[in-house]
Amino acid sequence: MYYPAVEFSSIYGSLSNTQLELALDYTSLSYFVVLFTLLIIIISYCCHSLRSARFDKIAKVTLDKMVNFASAVIAIVWASSVSIYGLELKNQLFGTAPIQLPSFIFLTSVSIALLISVVSFLAKQTEKEKKLLSPPLKSVYSASEEISKLIHLHAMIQIDFSEHEDFSIDELNKLDDSIIQSKKLCMKGMLEVLKTWSNDQDVMFSVNLLNIVDSTKLSNKLQNSDYPRQDFDQDSFSVKSIEASPFFLFKDHWISSLDRCDLILINEQSLTTSIGGHSSSTPHEPLCLPFSFSHFSPDKSVPNQPNLMGAPKALELQRVVYLDDIQKRVEESLSLLRKNCNYKSHMNQAFESDILKYYENDSASSLISIGLDGTVGLDVAIAEEHHTNAPYTNILNIYANKSYILNNNDVVKSYCALTQPIWKILENLISLRFQILEHKRSLNREIPEELPTNATTQDSDCASVQS
Questions:
Q1: Residue 233 has pLDDT above 50, yes or no
Q2: What does the buried/exposed string (b/e) look like for 403-424 if buried means 16 or more CB atoms within 10 Å of the residue's CB?
Q3: pLDDT averaged over the chain?
Q4: pLDDT at residue 72, rounded to an integer
Q5: Which contiguous run of DSSP H or E holds residue 12?
Q6: Residues 296, 229 within the same domain
Q7: Of 57 and 376, more confident
């Protein structure tokens, strides 16, 4: 059978020319598509990064039904243009033909559809974030119930206090007990709201109240009393509480430990409250944390105790502090101290292992610390007596045996805003108790000047351990 001769060179040449033309045409389109895509990405990124309240209002419009209808119409327009003018669009966009009206309509409709889609996506993200930040309806109901109950309780205590000009010691003790119980209810109310927010029945939520005490006054009281030589129950504060605390970097002696800080944050154990889950806590010494206003002592000779995470940081930064994962934050905090020029030469294995061991055995996996000012509304003389140069008199610690008790800091701010009336009532109760103690002293009765031995008689003044 005869096969005609084929000139492979001519066939190869014609194929090469065709591929070259297609490559040139495709390259011109690629530039256009790449530039157009980059433009949409840049616009989207800018809108997302520079999102403001005004942009949120504009973006929210894209969620309107009419805008969605318009988007559907636009989609039909460019889909129809592809169907009707498919060949022309191919020649104009992928070929060398100049762009004309069909291509202009197609590109315009696609651009508008893409822009609406991007803005609509950002609007949906904004709405989603707002829903995450907004408290659940159950939490709002719970907060309303707790606030209503506590307002009534606080009003009754306030009436009892204001109706008497001359108190007997028995009346003062009775009123003092009522204030203590009301403080417990406030703290429990904070937990009830948080429990409905997280909606996790297996998690144990706890709260404690730390009293901010001047370290010099505390040291003097401990040195001038018999308390350091006595045995104590778990509700008592003593030298042993300082020695057992793992939070003092410098702890050669309990006196030097107190000398190298300005304030001591002491847990009032009788008020600690828990709900939900299973409590496995064992009796222990009251929590004791140092706080320093500066890294060094006044003469700059020796460094002060470092301010650790949680309550000391809330006092230092004067704002709410949230620790989403305590174990992780502990390691980060120790790592920062190892790098800190003031403390790296003083860091030791015993200090680090003691802190890590404490949190391994502790029930707190995440923590919210809120500063409270119990001097609001006090007379100048009483407020001055409890003055410690700190913006707060107490720190409220709310914690759970689960990491990420709330999603993030923004959600924590929302929680604190919702529960603000509760912890404001708690502040007023702390202030009211200061006044009760002042009345007790004015009676010249047997008010102990040294540290108390139980929770119900604590708080003789700012140097004692109750607010």
A1: no
A2: eebbeeeebbebbbebbebbbb
A3: 77
A4: 73
A5: helix 8-49
A6: yes
A7: 376
56 and 99 in a single domain? The answer is yes
**Residues 306 and 425 occupy one common structural domain:** yes
Question: DSSP for 265-297?
Answer: EEE-GGG-EEESS-------PPPEEEE-SSSB-
Question: Do residues 127 and 243 both lie within one domain?
Answer: no
Other Cβ atoms less than 10 A from the Cβ of 443: the count is 13
The percent of residues above 70 in pLDDT, for the chain, comes to 66
**DSSP letters for 193-251:** HHHHHHT-TT--EEEEEEEEEEHHHHHHHHHTSSGGGS---TT---HHHHHH-TT-S--
Q: Which domain holds residue 125?
A: 9-132
For β-strands 288-291 and 321-323, DSSP reports them as unpaired
Are 370 and 396 a contacting pair, CB within 8 Å?
Answer: yes
Q: Report yes or no on 425 lying in a domain.
A: yes
Copy the structure tokens of residue 319. Answer: 């704002």
Q: Look at residues 347, 319, 326 and name the one whose alpha carbon lies nearest to residue 413.
A: 319
pLDDT in tens, 282-311: 667 788 999 999 888 766 678 899 999 999
Instruction: From 72, 107, 132, give the residue that closes a domain.
Output: 132
Nearest to 321 by CA among 206, 398, 373, 393: 398
* Residue 274 or residue 131, greater confidence: 274
Distance of alpha carbon 455 from alpha carbon 210, whole angstroms: 13
Pairing of strands 205-214, 394-400: antiparallel
Least confident of 232-241, 396-405, 426-435: 232-241
Q: Has residue 169 been placed in a domain?
A: yes
More confident residue, 333 or 374: 333
User: Rounded distance, CA 202 to CA 192, Å?
Assistant: 14
Q: pTM for the complete prediction?
A: 0.71
Do 179 and 119 lie in a common domain? no
Quick check: 287 and 208 in contact, CB under 8 A?
yes
The rounded distance, in Å, linking the Cα atoms of 35 and 46 is 16
Q: Which of 80, 115, 132 is the C-terminal boundary of a domain? A: 132
Direct distance between the N- and C-terminal alpha carbons of the chain, in angstroms, rounded to an integer: 112
In a domain? residue 1:
no
Dihedral sign from CA coordinates of 44, 47, 51, 53: negative
Could you tell me if 141 and 128 lie in one domain?
no
Residue 129 has pLDDT above 80, yes or no: no
pLDDT-derived band at 382 (thresholds 50, 70, 90) equals: low
Query: What is the token pair recorded at 356?
Result: 């890590």
> Is the pLDDT reported for residue 231 higher than 60?
no
Judge whether 89 lies within some domain.
Answer: yes
